[in-house]
Amino acid sequence: MNIFRLFGDLAHLASIFILLHKVQTSRSCRGISFKTQALYVAVFMTRYLDLFLGTWVSFYNTLMKLFFIGSSCYILYLIRFQFRTTYDPNLDTFRVEYLLVPSFILGLIFNYEFTLTEVMWSFSIFLEAVAIFPQLFILQRTGEAEAITTHYIAALGIYRGLYIPNWIYRYYSEGSVDPIAVVAGIVQTGLYADFFYVYFTKVLQGQRFELPA
Amino acid sequence: PYPYRPHDEL
Asked: What pLDDT is stored for residue A46 in this prediction?
């Protein structure tokens, strides 16, 4: 564990708490993509299969995995049931097959071992890299967003961004590289570039998140 | 060790 990964994980935790806070206080999931949230459930379920196979990394690792699975399922429940009337499926129209199918094919091609758990692990890494697309698509379509929704997206972007210095650190301290995670992680972080530009130049200056026309 | 390491990250 190093400071980059720790703060990355904390940013990831923060993003979930921000999202829960937004939904609970506004009693609305307006502007939140159910599809992105469902993809995260798929990501966690397929990546954390090792939980059920007796692989033990650390108490921290297990606790976080259980939290990510539990909280992502809870968020789906909130959107689908508790606040379903505030969810607008007509805005959330990104076709998830375009993300699921290529991620699965990439998982079949690029993996560390051709076994179910390893292919699923790779699939989850590729899927996570692009899972934010439906959420960004809603932003794109509406052209604006509540500040709290943008804080959620920013925390998610910071999370994966911080993993990059973590990998550089691990390369020098342990001599190990995880090429699949690194390539997907760089792509994932890159997808936030446009968003971050608007976020840092507008939202953090106290202005509304509005995309240029 | 390169290239494989057990998945110890989240």
From this structure: 97
Cβ separation B5–A178 shorter than 8 A:
yes
pLDDT value for B3:
53
| DSSP per-residue string spanning A54-65 | T----HHHHHHH
B5 vs A9, A64, A176: nearest CB: A176
Query: What is the rounded distance in angstroms from the CA atom of residue A156 to the CA atom of residue A144?
Result: 18
- The strand pair at A209-210 and A144-145 is best described as antiparallel
Residue of B nearest to A67 (CA): B10
What's the rounded Cα separation, in Å, for the pair A169 and A25?
Answer: 39
Tens digit of each residue's pLDDT (9 = 90 or more) over A142-193: 999 999 999 999 999 999 999 999 999 999 998 888 999 999 999 999 999 9
A178 with B6: Cβ contact below 8 A: no
Reply yes or no on whether the pLDDT at A194 is more than 60: yes
- Mean pLDDT value across chain A: 95
Where does A113-188 show beta strands of DSSP type E? 144-145
Q: How far is A176 from chain B (nearest CA, A)?
A: 5
Residues in chain B with CB shorter than 8 Å from the CB of A12 are 10
Contact by Cβ (8 Å): B3, A118: no
Reported ipTM = 0.85
